[in-house]
């Protein structure tokens, strides 16, 4: 008679847009049983809604009963959140909350693993209602920081990840998620609270005597995608104009105050507007810009505005307009700016403005990534590339995706850079793309493809006489040859790299290459 086996139920839950993973799941459990669990006298049993027996009561309650009996709960999300169950906004949410409650009460059982399938850039840039709920859930998970969670690009990668994670889990069933290696806990996060989708409005305060120049200002800002609230355009017959203006000041995101000699010397409603704007400005934190004073002629600056930088359109109109846009750009929600641009169809938006927007988004994305806010960073990058496929954004986006293990998507970004730079004749950009692709292929273990990319990059850099680029390429080839086991070729490449970095005086790179040469010397001495 054979030995009895300890049966462990493994539950899988997801909305209905992940059928491929759910179909694969039972076969994967069978495979892990064969290669690992059975030799440990353990039998894993796959459980999901497909396995729930018909019975009385709510279907979700029957599924919950299966979850309660499971020792491991695997939950997946992609584009959809699901449909309400009566108690929760979706079956997925109900399953997660039940599993979390059990985990807290019963000494970390069941274990909870969360997997998020990669979301296409176009959807990240403009999420609908279902995806918005998914992203909000990611934010919640990132803040809780309790359970294993991992991003994956496609079904094949998920299969490999889950097989590895199940085998490691079986090696030590008492392990808890917070002790897993950091590389298995890639936080995805979600939009920060400041990314609230709405239409930001800029209130324009002026006197009617300055209407001609104010209209020019309004047109210049509107052409750059800025939405303005102008009293003459907003008033309808019968409106109580004082009340409507006060409401606009209370609800606007920014207030541009047009200063002129006539405006400041005139008694009347402009002074009341200015007082209301000053009062609203007091409610904002010190780091947030609300009030933007703009001088349209050679007037004195009121005392209450002297502490602020004043844009002087009377001296340099174009620079002044650019400064106003930059101020709004810096302080406005980045999604709002994108919405403005998308909504401004009747004009051709200046390419410089679009570049300002995308590069500001990219800067925010890099800062978020450095702070560990991975999904927020991914959203910012996606929104930036949706506005303008700028190589200065695509390159760091690709590096970011490579860092979090999204190698296929990273390769797409680097290939985009290559294509754009070839079309525009940017040879340096092509070389950079090849270098990045070489690093990516090396990470993937495809040494032949990596070598090809490094040599292509090197050929362009040699042709252009770019010593720093050549030095980096030689260094990368040295790492590749060392990985391949060709230590003599690796040493030759390192020496060429060191000579070039020494020539251009790159101290950090010199230290790095010397360290690699010392490591190589130890390896060769041990041969």
Task: Describe the protein's architecture and organization.
- The protein has helices at 19-37, 59-68, 91-105, 121-125, 129-144, 155-171, 211-222, 231-234, 241-251, 261-265, 269-281, 317-331, 334-343, 351-370, 374-387, 391-403, 407-424, 427-444, 447-464, 467-484, 487-504, 507-525, and strands at 6-13, 42-47, 72-77, 111-117, 148-152, 202-205, 228-229, 254-259, 291-295, 311-312.
- The chain has a five-stranded parallel sheet with strand order 2-1-3-4-5, sandwiched between helices.
- It starts with 5 loop residues before the first strand and ends with a helix.
- With 527 residues, the protein is α/β, with parallel strands linked by helices.
- The protein is 58% helix and 10% strand.
- Helix 19 (447-464) runs antiparallel to helix 20.
- The longest helix has 20 residues, at 351-370.
Short note summarizing the structure:
The chain is α/β, with parallel strands linked by helices. The protein has helices at 19-37, 59-68, 91-105, 121-125, 129-144, 155-171, 211-222, 231-234, 241-251, 261-265, 269-281, 317-331, 334-343, 351-370, 374-387, 391-403, 407-424, 427-444, 447-464, 467-484, 487-504, 507-525, and strands at residues 6-13, 42-47, 72-77, 111-117, 148-152, 202-205, 228-229, 254-259, 291-295, 311-312.
